[in-house]
Amino acid sequence: MYIGIDLGGTNIAVGLVDEDGKIIKKDSAPTRRERGYEEIVRDMASLARCVTRESGHSMSEVKAIGIGSPGTVDNSRGMVVYANNLKMDHAPIAAEMRKYFDLPVNLENDANAAAYGEYIATGKNASSFVFMTLGTGVGGGIILDGKIYRGFNGAGAEIGHTTIVMGGKKCSCGRRGCLEMYASVTALKALTEESRKRYPRSLINDWARRRGHVSGRTAFECAKEGDEAARLVKEQYIRSVAVGVCNMINIFQPEIFVIGGGISREGDELLVPIREYVDKNDYNKHMPKTEIRIAKLYNDAGIVGAALAAKREDK
Amino acid sequence: MYIGIDLGGTNIAVGLVDEDGKIIKKDSAPTRRERGYEEIVRDMASLARCVTRESGHSMSEVKAIGIGSPGTVDNSRGMVVYANNLKMDHAPIAAEMRKYFDLPVNLENDANAAAYGEYIATGKNASSFVFMTLGTGVGGGIILDGKIYRGFNGAGAEIGHTTIVMGGKKCSCGRRGCLEMYASVTALKALTEESRKRYPRSLINDWARRRGHVSGRTAFECAKEGDEAARLVKEQYIRSVAVGVCNMINIFQPEIFVIGGGISREGDELLVPIREYVDKNDYNKHMPKTEIRIAKLYNDAGIVGAALAAKREDK
Fold first, then answer.
1. Claim to verify: residue A277 and residue A304 sit in the same structural domain
2. B174, A280: Cβ pair inside 8 Å?
3. pTM here?
4. Cβ-based contacts of B127 with chain A (< 8 Å)
5. Domain at B309, CATH number
6. Domain ranges, residue B69
7. How many structural domains comprise chain B?
8. How far apart are the CA of B29 and the nearest CA of chain A, in angstroms?
9. Min CA distance, A140 vs chain B (Å)?
10. Is the ipTM of this complex over 0.85?
11. Does any CB of chain A come closer than 8 Å to the CB of residue B162?
12. Cβ–Cβ of B156/A81 closer than 8 Å?
């Protein structure tokens, strides 16, 4: 079995994962990111011991430890080169972890780890696989021939930072019109807020007043109730996601494309119109088509993917 | 040695290529694309014999034949599945060629073949390599771990058909705002024509009147003479190319990125502002940067790449 660790800006989630990628036991603790990496790794180690002990196992049964971290990760050196939301700069996470356990430690970018988890979860051993996760930002992971594609410097697969609107909305990365500014849940919430102001009598307003805020689900739920303003928001959002998906398909023509992140729980409400857009707009008109799916692991993708990537590297 | 064939909508170019990718002898004939594929392949075979004989060699010295074709190519079946500008529909080009020569025949998409030629021409054996060719359209090729990346269905690497302006100009592929509509030489010519009308006293008009038309070089040449309208066209065009290059770099973080096609002969006039844009806008701020270069082989990339891809497949 393996330890999978999903290091986030808010929480550290740690799981004991079996050979097939099933989580046996998981637990989490606040990251308290203002701390140095040494303390954060100490908490990771202690959580790893906890989940192993509490599930009736021992660390001697664990073959490797996998960690997924946000930011720029140097896999070969096991180092978080830079992570803005963790305040880490050249933090030797893997080496620090090995002070606690004499085990192989594999460090991946978190989106890459999640992508690898979802890749294994398809059960299809696809020759090419692209994962797009719609959350606060838009992340991505690319698995080719069963391996995480990282680019020559480890910083690849930033599919959220591709321009889809030249001269468009300013992105935190410095560019304008990045996919992330139109297809993230943050973008969906902004669209929903705009609509709320423009159509004060729409259901969106009732929904927001009842809960005190709008969320990524607001437009989807109000649209189901027949609200026209909500339907427009939902369609505009889904169109942007579909443009991003179709761009990646024209580049990669992957065997499988998986859409993840919280909003992917909308299932067919999201998937069906994306499939329709891609079916019509994909450049490939004459060969078999990419299979587009919704993620299976949701919040567990980070833990499972980190563990399975460590398993793969341990071979 | 190898035969490399660049099958185009206008001409069939055939070369005898040595082990290092140097063209020993080349020749061409009109494609006359209204003909069936059998006649086109017959001309390819006859050109192959000619260049071999005329260079004092014999077909018995040739180890394999490589063909690059536009359209959707099925490499494993050696078939042009569909090529609009060749009027080919499931044409078994490789099998037809083998009626003339008892040699391995490898068929690639033309942009992939050109990319492979440029990849070898870098002499760097890069782990990841992206090629973008700016011509009538915008084509691409991706070489990962020394192999042409084709996607699971062979239709990948259509980087010209990624949306950079959502809701933008209508593309021949059916989508709106494809990179090709802003970064192709066709797009540059259209910008130049627009500018010519808007600024009737610009140098662009003198240039066009002297030659009877504008070309991809017009804006670059008039800008060198200090013409302001031409400078604006050139900058707008280069910005679009740079956005496309930076998108691909954020996805692939390739070790080397090569820009080809006729317009790449502008050299530093094109390269320097693209490097500046990418240096500023690339998502990767903490790891080594992609090396961006201009193509070396120009019009020979198709012949050389087809030949070298055949050499690789023949191993």
1. no
2. yes
3. 0.96
4. 152
5. 3.30.420.40
6. 2-116+300-314
7. 1
8. 29
9. 9
10. yes
11. yes
12. no
